[in-house]
Amino acid sequence: MSLETSDVDVLIVGSGVSGLFLSNFLSKLNVDFILIDSLKDPINRIRDTGLVSENFVNLFPKAKDFAIKSYRSANFYLGKDSFEVFARRGNYYLLDRVALNKHLLESAEKYGEVSFGERLERINGYAITNYRKIRYKVIVDATGPYSYVRKLYDLESNKDFVIGIEIHTEDLLADGIHIFLDKKYSKEHFLWIVGLDGYSKVGIMDKGLNMRKFLKIIRDFGIYDYSLIYSHVIKRREEKVLAYKNFISVGESTGYLKKFSLGGILVSYIQAYFASLVIKGYLEKGIPLERYNKIIKDYFYVRSFPDFVRKAMKKKAIFNILKVLNANKIVSYFDLDFYIPFYRIKSIRVFESDL
Ligand SMILES: Cc1cc2nc3c(=O)[nH]c(=O)nc-3n(C[C@H](O)[C@H](O)[C@H](O)COP(=O)(O)OP(=O)(O)OC[C@H]3O[C@@H](n4cnc5c(N)ncnc54)[C@H](O)[C@@H]3O)c2cc1C
């Protein structure tokens, strides 16, 4: 029996926060897309805590409508030989992520096709899912830490994996921290704790792909209510292929994840924004998708410096972005201090393509 075949400009694989943001940006640019997710209900399956900084709300003011709580600072506890606490000042919001996802889904459905329970299985000229073939011009990897599409394209080279667990607990905070402090752990392990009065989540991660060792640590800690997560980190200055021919990746599949996963929502938003512009440029003007590599690299690179250096570099980076996108109009300010601890980040202007 031959499979049904669909034709589309953009196939987005993965309906996590990055796939949803991208579908919304593409809708605004009138780009035809199909959004698929192997889960039957990805909207209710949220991986993150939902904590975002003021910066995210500045970029996406609608987010405030979904805020459940706000905080004046966020604390992170990082396990090392000596226990360290990072407090990041500024406003933070805890979002009702299910409500936000529903909102994003509703607007995506108005413009494109959304199909849940549909899993990408192979790429063979077409994308082959569990029930049809999809012929696409651009395929987007929004599959999260597994980077599934990247693997099919044989672009997975990053061996630097982080295995992590998330521990669910109602009343963690100070008491819960002792779970970790009282036990021995080596330098390679670190943990993060997001204390949210009753919404607490704790994560402990282990650099290096040694599952057996990792599970032993968990057992030693006496932790039973947990779920495993896997992510990869991209080392600073390491170059990773984020776009190649008709492949492009957004969100966690890009590997731009720091050990604190907090910030993923903001990064997903920024990458989806850039990706939507580049995709539109590719479809309409033949601008190579590979330019996205440069945009993302410039964007994140410029942020890894302290303010005074960044100021000098900013001009050049902006010029590059402008050149790549053929841009002529300033549309927004992007700010991102989550990703660069210790430095206070000022805004950087980004440009929209003159599409
Ligand atoms: C414990 C934890 C807490 C976090 N807390 C925060 C926080 O407070 N704030 C913050 O900003 N970030 C947080 N993060 C980070 C944030 O969750 C991620 O950065 C974000 O979810 C990445 O979204 P994504 O869309 O790239 O990937 P995902 O959300 O993983 O979505 C990927 C989707 O792709 C689908 N998929 C995979 N393979 C296929 C396939 N073959 N076919 C079809 N579909 C497929 C999956 O079903 C999934 O729905 C946290 C992460 C963790 C693990």
UniProtKB/TrEMBL annotation:
Species, as recorded: Candidatus Nanoclepta minutus
Gene3D superfamilies cross-referenced by the UniProt entry: FAD/NAD(P)-binding domain
One GO MF term: FAD binding
Domain FAD-binding per the UniProt entry, residue ranges: 7-50
InterPro entries: FAD-bd, FAD/NAD-bd_sf, Geranylgeranyl_reductase
Pfam family, one: FAD_binding_3
Record-given protein name: FAD-binding domain-containing protein
